[in-house]
Amino acid sequence: MAAGENEAGPATAPVRTLGRSGVPVTALGFGAAAIAGLFGDVGEDEATATVEAAWSAGIRYFDTAPHYGVGLSERRLGAVLRAKPRDGFTLSTKVGRVLVPREGGGDDRANGFAVPATHMRRWDFSADGVRRSLEDSLTRLGLDRVDLVLLHDPDDHEEQAFREAYPALEELRSQGVVRAIGAGMNQSRMLARFLTDTDVDAVLCAGRYTLLEQGALDALLPAAAAAGKSVIIGGVFNSGLLADPTPEAKYDYTRAPEELLSRALRMREVTEAHGVPLRAAALRFPFGYPAVASVLVGARSADQVRDAAAQYRRPVPGAMWEALRERGLLPDGVPVPDAGTEGSLS
After folding, report:
1. pLDDT band at 3 (very low <50, low <70, confident <90, very high)
2. In whole angstroms, what is the distance from residue 187 CA to residue 154 CA?
3. What is the pTM of this model?
């Protein structure tokens, strides 16, 4: 067995970096929304086992946010990572929603999380809100620092985000409190503006650059490449549709429209004809564009993590991508990964 590996896969230090920040990320990262009860209950032991499985699989980049389970994601992720060498992993969290204690009971299912509604989310993209949110996150994580801080979903707060929140992040970076800054959204237009109008190191684009849709290719990805900045891709399965296209599958957190379900099913026919599960093709697809530094995979169980790592490493033949083009399922000119090579987590 090679040095730096274990039976579950490579555990070498990550070598990809976010822009010019020097912050390393593994090509496959762990998105920690699901362990906070996204779409259904996840027990404490199961959440712990899921994060441990990610570590054993060689994943060394972890992403969380206060929004996920009103702080539960940060608490559960921090409980595991506190026992790991701090210089051995990269951690990102987000700002823009401040959590405020709430009384009255109830749950948070209206926001997508099967957890008690112990807090309310309050939008706050002020400079003070950014600092308070980060301080609260560090308390929940039980860590003294995070590596990357992202403005979270500033869709309806665009001008305040650029006028107040972004300068606050830039100040935190200049003070050495964080090493890299950026924004994370489910759209590409505003993220492209962050790349061209600010000095962010990276952006996290969820659901807009996947095997199913490539809207980020219009402006976002070229802007990142031109500026020497990085893009992290989230939502690579479009909320589950590209992982398991069934009538109950979700797309953008709601039930998938029939047209998109039909397209995903046709994609699966093509990929499986070439010996490649659809989820493996979906995981590998974003790396066809060189500005993509990491793909986040959300998992709610250890088995899901192990499957994601195995699918990512699966060789994908170039003929599969060409077959998708021939069937009209992948537009001409959309870049695809090099054919036949296995993925590497580092």
Report:
1. very low
2. 10
3. 0.93
**Cα-Cα end-to-end distance for the chain:** 17
Distances (CA, A) of 37 to 30, 231, 298: 15, 26, 11
200-235: per-residue pLDDT in tens?
A: 999 999 999 999 999 999 999 999 999 999 999 999
> What residues contact 210, with CB distance under 8 A and at least 6 apart?
233, 235, 236, 237, 238, 242, 282, 285, 286
Q: 73 and 38 in contact (C-beta within 8 Å)?
A: no
3-state secondary structure the chain: CCCCEECCEECCCCCEECCCCCCEECCEEEECCHHHCECCCCCHHHHHHHHHHHHHCCCCEEECCCCCCCCHHHHHHHHHHCCCCHHHCEEEEEECEEEEECCCCCECHHHCECCECCEEEEECCCHHHHHHHHHHHHHHHCCCCCCEEEEECCHHHHHHHHHHHHHHHHHHHHCCCCCEEEEEECCCHHHHHHHHHCCCCEEEEECCCCCCCCHHHCCHHHHHHHHCCEEEEECCCHHHCCCCCCCCCEECCEECCHHHHHHHHHHHHHHHHCCCCHHHHHHHHHHHCCCEEEEEEECCCHHHHHHHHHHHHCCCCHHHHHHHHHCCCCCCCCCCCCCCCCCCCC
| Cα separation, 143 vs 175, whole angstroms | 18
Query: Residues 329-344: what's their mean pLDDT?
Result: 81
The backbone torsions φ and ψ at residue 256, rounded to the nearest 5 degrees and listed phi first, read -70, 135
Catalytic one of 68, 209, 289, 312: 68
d(CA 66, CA 95): 8
Compute the distance between CA of residue 141 and CA of residue 118 in angstroms, rounded to an integer.
17
Examine the residue annotation and report whether 68 is marked as an active-site residue of this protein: yes
In which element (H, E) is residue 230 found? Answer: strand 230-234
Strand 9-10 and strand 5-6: pairing?
antiparallel
| Rounded distance between C-alpha atoms, residue 68 and residue 113, angstroms | 7
Check if the beta carbon of residue 152 is closer than 8 Å to that of residue 67: yes
